[in-house]
Design brief:
It comes from Lysinibacillus xylanilyticus. The protein has four helices and no strands. With 86 residues, it is an all-alpha fold.
């Protein structure tokens, strides 16, 4: 149950992030890839690299690493918050 809540919160956060200002409905594949990666990653820098590579691969546009680190910290906070709720 905690995974479902975590995934929903992570998806919502990524949709709001909108790094290329295309609107929230343009990132379904990337969001799914990042949320899947989040399951096995606890290091914000590692997750940030996955985020950067995933979005850049799809859109062929560069995202500053700092932006990816900022969102990765928020995603990992969601993950750990979900683990602490029993």
């Amino acid at each position: 149950m905690e995974n479902i809540k975590m995934n929903r919160a992570a998806v919502h956060l990524l949709e709001e992030w909108d790094p290329f200002n295309l609107g929230p409905d343009h990132y379904d594949t990337e969001t799914a890839d990042v949320v899947a990666a989040l399951q096995g990653i606890d290091d914000p820098s590692v997750l940030a690299k996955v985020i950067q590579e995933t979005y850049e691969h799809s859109f062929e546009e560069w995202i500053p690493f700092e932006n990816c680190v900022a969102i990765s910290y928020k995603l990992i906070a969601i993950k750990f918050e979900a683990k602490c709720i029993i």
